[in-house]
Fold each of these.
Amino acid sequence: MKIYLMTDLEGVAGMFTWENRDDESHFNAARRLRVGRWLAEEVNAAVDGCIAGGATDVIVNDGHGSGGTIDLDVADPRARYLHGRERPFWLPYLDATCNATGVVGAHSKAGTESGNLFHTMSLGIRDWSFNGISVGEMGLQALIAGYHGVPFIFATGDAWACREMEELIPGCVTVPVKYGTSRLSALTLAPVEARKRIRAGAEKAMGAIGKVEPLVLDSPVVMRDERVEPTFDDETPEQDGVRILDPHTREIEGDDFMDVLFKLYPHYDREWRPLDWQPEN
């Protein structure tokens, strides 16, 4: 049974402020190493829970920033880890061969009042919606999975992020490890307690496979892309299903969700398919 775990950093217990990649001080270097270890240990708890619940193959996507946040020195050796930049697709290996997907370390979507470190993909996005359904990064993951018939069953992170997924995916198992009190503050569990709850939640989530429905949109799919700053030229002619509504807003229409996603990110290769590499024992 194959499980695909996406990861982020902002929803990890103990995180409350943005990662500063430009600060080259010794203090910041030590802090970044520490939070990478916190993330790795939360991932370990999720991997352990998934395996206890019946998973035989776990792929972990190091999804924060440049894809090199998880401290692999302490990573669970039973999982495989996807990391690095210039990927052929945002979530490689999340396809019909997976039985379920989930996320560790999630933050809430753009515009979530009191959500700690809330955003959707970047700080410049006000809202993304598909067929009128507003989603954040977890919702995008669930829609990619749903396109392949794969259910989204598990989320950990800020309580606001957990509430977001409970409303979007009925039956999804969530594990809040902190409660955002503003964009830059949170009431958090100690990391050791967070890991304990994540492990139990991941094992419980395995029982949701076959009960939680994949998130699938009717065709055609229309995305509304709203930006904080004026971004789009409203005098630009319509292109391949892209309509500029005003300098802050555009719509992208496609035959299905993945068609829209490839129009949103035209540098992705539509023909790329993963080789399911399994190392020999």
Amino acid sequence: MTRSSIKLGRIFGIEISAHISWAIIVVLVTLSLVSYFGMTQPDWSLTMRWGASIVTALLFFGSVLVHELAHSLVAKRYGIPVRSITLFLFGGVSQIESEAKRPSEEFWIAIVGPLTRFAIGALAGIIFVITSTNTVIGAVAGWLAGVNVVLAIFNMLPGFPLDGGRVMRSLIWFKTGNVRKATRIEARVGQGIAAIMMLTGLWMF
């Protein structure tokens, strides 16, 4: 992943880069938003739809970066080195160089990501409420509020590799005092959740 990434800069001493696959999802999200705003804002001109879509896509990926920065900064607070953050096709990944030494550290490093998304969603929701839905700001804020809250809830599912799985592992680790046992349990839970999601997708199809 590192060899196929473009360096974007540094934030708080953490190198930020984007994998080439990130460009694909940026284009797909932007095109999806053009269609979305076309349906929800029929009075907008084509230029307005494209402008709002590009801004919304950039703000969305900005929220992805903030999510990963939250993980990284808490890890650094506990003395755990963070090499970089890479944006890629499915979101972002923080390259934290070592595991947490205590379950409490694991808990806070993991849970801060979904909490950050909830905070972003709440802020966007407040902006949406105080502005008109028909305005560009209101429409953009409404979309960002919904998607961030949904992603925060999804990310709290209690299975690896989601943040919720790491939160649950930290709790099992705290209860049993055995990080390997906690990891094995959460790996199985993650497999179960993945199987349920695949079966649900097939059933919906």
Amino acid sequence: MATFSPTDAALEGFRITREKPRVLLVWSLANLVVSTVMAIALIAMFGPMLTEIEAMNAGSDDPAQALAMFEKIAPFYALVLPVGLMVIAVWSGAVYRVILRPSDSKYGYLRLGGDEFRLAVLMLIYVVLAIGFTFVLTLVAGLLSAGALAIAGPVGKLIGVLIGLAAVALFIFVALRLSLSGPATFAERHIRVFESWTLTRGNVWRLLGAYVVALILAAVVVLLALIIFVAVAAIMAGGDITSVGKVFQPDTSSIASYFTAPMMIYLVFGAFLGAVQNAVVYAPPAVAYRELHGPVGD
């Protein structure tokens, strides 16, 4: 049975950023351009509305106001969701390309073509499947838990908790078994929804270990990066911590009010950090696919 090293898979993203600094620079610049253009476009189209929604959200728990807020924000999500889907497809495709087609290095491995379109469609399919599976799983777990609660005393409560944990574990298990669908779709140039199920047989614990280690390392990097950002931005702002903190709750009423000096620093810093995160998060499944599937031609 084919296998792979969870440690190697978890650390692959860091290896890419270390061994390919020019690629990391291209990804960082691309991140900066995308985040800046999206911010300008969204503020130009929805800026005042976003400010109004934030005020409504903070000021009332009235269901009628919540419905009104949803109606206002629907056009915002109608634009953001498809764009966000394609952005994720581009970044994941770039990391897959480094690992699965290393010779195809033009433009820093970044593309916007058939590979990315297929990845976006695959993600959309999985969103629909995840919603359906979650609904069924929640319904079944709820019914079983209701039956368990009919048993008097702590035994019934314990059974209910165990049923809930079993439902979560089942969801994670299915997600792990299907986690190589992205690399498979990219490598084989066809949408592969369930091929991952066969590839991952007998490797669930290795996959879980690789993903957990990668996520922990990514979280540590983010935490350290935020500490550094706050320190640098505070120094450049003359020690004004309040102005630095506003980048996490930006003023979206206008483009000028959004792009403050601390926000510009944050965007540059976040672009680099995002490039590192993308490599760390998307590399493990690509490595696992390459090792479990065998050689993949360019």
Amino acid sequence: MIRICAVALLVVGVASPCRAQDVAGYLALAREYAAGQGEEATDRLAIWPQSAVSAASAVAVTTGSVRDLLAAVMLHTDLANATIDAEPEAARFHLNIARTVLTAASGRIGQRQRLEPFVRRWFRFVASVYTSAELLNAAAAIVHQGLEAFPTDPGLFVARGTIIEVGVRKNFVPDWRRDTVFGTSHRDKVEDALNGAAGQYVRALSLDSHNAEAHLHLGWVRLFMADGRAKSELDAAVADAQDDGVRYLAHLFLGGLAERDNHLEDARHEYESARMVGPDFQTPYVALSRIEQALGHEDRARELALAGLRLEKSDADDPWWDHRIGLDRQGLYWLRDEVRRPQ
């Protein structure tokens, strides 16, 4: 799995260039992160012993500015996201520090309401970090904590549904492209679980009827379960999408629905729309090549397949990957932008 930034080294408990309470150095790393040098700052924080991190952050929450504290929150969060697959316990440590710092920042006089959008999005993103690493109990716990603070936050209900989806994939359906699970003894368990996920997305939509992510996930679940309501949800995701990632996936899923129903011209239209939104991703080229082959256009099918193979590697992953593992990448981008916004 390719995450946003790669930390060169994560060593916990080794010799560190910082003193036990190097608060100035700690806040300097936060400011470096806020200035846009995230990879460099996380690399350096990664080699601090946990005892030094704990000591410095404990002092920083009383001496640092709110801006510095938010940058520190994202410094820890970004580090955890980059390392959670290889070092889950160290990542959990940094996420716990991030939450402590965030609580201190939002507890400052006059800051609670101002920081509420950031805090809400942080809970949602951290849940997705745990989900993407298949640490589903930890993901569920952070969603629960978020909902205790923000019981009407639609994004957290989307996060809860996504946890269920990833649990189904982990336990029953290793490859979402195959529906053979419905011919196994696990069929009832899968259906019950996905109905539970759908219920979370419906709850999110009851709070925000234009939540594109909820429409997208609900459409995907209904597509997988051969529910005739899938298309209307995916159409709504296209209409309400605030970012290209959701729009791209909705067109891909609409193409898959049309292809399954043997509406090949409709499938081609949707896959072309996905390719227009995400021209650097191979998935639409593969899908279009398959459709052209089915339509008897062998030359066009070959041309599309070759075009897909010749694509230069993109800096960004295909959004399908994030959808599959449950990572809220747009949330990370939003949180980063907030702490790097000029004052």
